[in-house]
Amino acid sequence: MSENKRKLIIIGSGPAGYTAAIYASRANLKPLVITGIDMGGQLMQTTDVENYPGYPDGIMGPQMMDDFRKQAERMGAEIKFGHVTKVDFSDPMNHKCIVDDKEEFIGETIVIATGATAKWLGIESETRLNGAGVSACAVCDGFFYKDKAVAIVGGGDTAAEEALYLANLCPTVHMFIRRDEMRASKVMQQRVFDHPNIKVYWNTETDEVLGEKVVEAVRVKNNKTGEKTEIPIDGFFVAIGHKPNTDLFKDILDMDHEGYLITKADSTVTNVEGVFASGDVQDKIYRQAVTAAGTGCMAALDAERYISAKEFELSQKQNAAV
Ligand code: NDP
């Protein structure tokens, strides 16, 4: 095998990518993990992770990703810091990945684990107070605001689901919707309207999150009347959608209308032979570290089986030729 060729290249270094690396290393595939710019993925932006099994006292997101990386390395994975800027998947068993526009690596198989990025409102205070009361994941961080007042922005299924999740922990959930209707499915809307702890504000946009060191309140503006209101809160959740990191694979891999990679049912198989997808890049429903890790494991097993089948096929051909 040439110096730049590997049996498996994993693109991405979140829970999906590192779990794929651990499984693939144990199957002796000697995988190369190309980390991406945000090495460690979305968990690098979080503080305490309390819902990942195996950490009874919780763990900081960056520490957890460091543990994942160390475990992958100990099993034999090679980690390369860099960003894949171009791919060419036209030659089966020779999938090309160009790193930082200069270095080429070839994988017999590829696992894509490039994740998704939460969309933000783009206001200054949201960035400044990120991790200090501002969050884009209620399931990850909601528990820290148990019995406190919180606010959530968004009117889609994610916002509805997260508002309901928060409403079971918090006495008041202020929900800001920028139009006079919600995008969420009717059944989810009804659950939101029926919950006594959720207060819906229509035509309402966030002006600024307030607080010096931690979130203390939010100032919202009614976009019909122009009226501004300050509401005391402890947690501010943004749930206005995610963008899967799939620009690199446009016109190569099948995606849905939002850009999520499409995999065959009960597998991580994409429409291109030898290319597998795992984690948030192909999951818009669950989006949890533990589910991403689960599909990372599946992708490594799918890649290993694919390689074994190819090697068997090749040995049969060679035997027939003798
Ligand atoms: P969506 O794109 O469906 O909804 C985004 C919401 O955020 C909309 O209400 C949108 O408002 C609002 N929004 C967008 N930008 C801003 C902004 N700058 N300021 C204020 N509000 C803003 O994203 P979701 O993450 O909710 O859902 C993504 C997909 O995943 C959907 O297809 C959804 O059905 C699916 N999903 C399914 C689930 C399930 O089946 N259990 C659970 C979660 C998601 P507007 O409507 O005005 O554009």
Tally the helices.
7
Q: How far is the N terminus from the C terminus?
A: 23 Å
Tell me how many strands there are: 19
How can the largest sheet be summarized?
7 strands, mixed
**Percent range for β-strand residues:** 25-35%
Helix and strand run: EHEEEHEEEEEHEHEHEHEEEEEEEH
Structural class, by secondary structure, is alpha/beta
Overall 3D shape? elongated
The oligomerization state is single chain
Kindly state the percentage of residues in helix.
25-40%
Task: Look at the structure and give the mean pLDDT.
Answer: 95
Bound heterogens, unique? NADPH dihydro-nicotinamide-adenine-dinucleotide phosphate
C-alpha Rg (nearest Å): 22 Å
> Low-confidence segments, ≥5 residues, pLDDT <50?
none
Task: Give a verbal description of the structure.
The protein is an alpha/beta fold and 322 residues long. It has 7 helices and 19 strands. The strands form 5 sheets. Strands 1, 2, 5, 6, 7, 8 and 19 form a 7-stranded mixed β-sheet that branches. The protein has a 5-stranded parallel β-sheet with strand order 10-17-11-12-13. Helix 1 (15-26) packs parallel to helix 2, helix 1 (15-26) packs parallel to helix 7 and helix 5 runs parallel beside helix 6. The two termini are 23 Å apart. It binds NADPH dihydro-nicotinamide-adenine-dinucleotide phosphate.
Describe the structure concisely.
With 322 residues, the protein is α/β, with parallel strands linked by helices. It is 28% helix and 26% strand. It is elongated.
